[in-house]
Specification:
By secondary structure, the chain is an alpha/beta fold. It has two domains: 3-125, Rossmann fold; 134-223, Arc Repressor Mutant, subunit A. The chain is 46% helix and 22% strand. It has eight helices and 13 strands. It has helices at residues 11-23, 37-44, 60-68, 84-92, 105-129, 156-167, 175-184, 191-207, and strands at 3-7, 27-31, 48-51, 54-55, 58-59, 75-79, 97-100, 130-133, 136-139, 144-147, 150-153, 215-217, 221-223. The strands form four sheets. Strands 2-1-3-6-7 form a five-stranded parallel beta sheet, sandwiched between helices. Strands 8-9-10-11 form a four-stranded antiparallel beta sheet. Residues 128-224 form the OmpR/PhoB-type domain. It comes from Faecalicatena faecalis. This is Response regulator transcription factor. InterPro entries: OmpR/PhoB-type_DNA-bd (IPR001867), Sig_transdc_resp-reg_receiver (IPR001789), WalR-like (IPR039420).
Length: 224
């Protein structure tokens, strides 16, 4: 799973970005102390950085230039500055992409995946976003389950549940683990709601001829 570092001083935008990326199944770190940013970046060892330009005490453009002295980590500017010259400066300082606020969430996620592929992580990105088990494929990028030529779309909650099951294929995943994961990502769900979601996932699996993929282990949880 890829690790993304958010460097954004607005706490609301920072929290919004963190939730969006975690729901897209990224690992996410944030920086809230802007006095010594470079050591924090080095400690986080991210696969990609989302960087604001207007930061307290420093410019994101200068920070990008500092990062480029020692690292080729992909950097996407996410900023309220929409002037074409600002975008040009960002790319000249070493940025890999430039997105203006307010951003469109699906577009931001698509651009992140594109930058990771473009910067030499194509096979790793493909591997981390696709799981295949017993002929059934879970694709995290488009949120689908596929079997042969058949495909079905998943909701955000269903996608996270399927990710937990596919990433631990052949192992029992407890109901408590599934609920804890959804709660950690601020998707509010209880035991009864989990049962409803599992039923809906099974119904979608039936549409693609994989209705018996998810097994229930009474008192233990689920496995595929």
């Amino acid at each position: 799973m890829y690790r993304i570092l958010i460097i954004e001083d607005d706490p609301d935008i920072r929290a919004e970005l963190k939730l969006l990326l975690e729901n897209a199944l990224y690992q996410v770190d944030t920086i809230i102390d802007f006095t010594k940013v470079i050591p924090q970046i080095q400690n986080a060892s991210p696969d990609l950085i989302l960087l604001d330009i207007q930061l307290p005490g420093n410019s994101g453009l200068n920070l990008c230039q500092e990062i480029r002295r020692t690292s080729e980590v992909p950097i996407i500017f996410v900023t309220g500055l929409s002037n074409p010259m600002d975008e040009l400066n960002g790319m000249m300082m070493g940025g890999d992409d430039y997105i203006t606020k307010p951003y469109h969430a699906p577009l931001l996620l698509a651009r992140i995946a594109a930058v990771l592929k473009r910067t030499g992580h194509k096979n790793e990105v493909d591997d981390s976003y696709q799981f295949v088990w017993k002929g059934c494929e879970l694709n995290l990028l488009d949120g689908t389950l596929k079997h042969g030529k058949l495909s079905t779309e998943l909701t955000k909650n269903e996608l996270r549940i399927c990710y937990n099951l596919f990433s631990r294929a052949g192992q029992i995943v407890s109901r408590e683990d599934l609920i804890d994961d959804l709660w950690d990502n601020q998707i509010f769900i209880d035991d009864n709601t989990l049962s409803v979601h599992i039923t809906r996932i099974r119904s979608k699996l039936k549409e693609i001829g994989m209705e018996h993929l998810i097994q229930t282990r009474r008192g233990q949880g689920y496995l595929i």
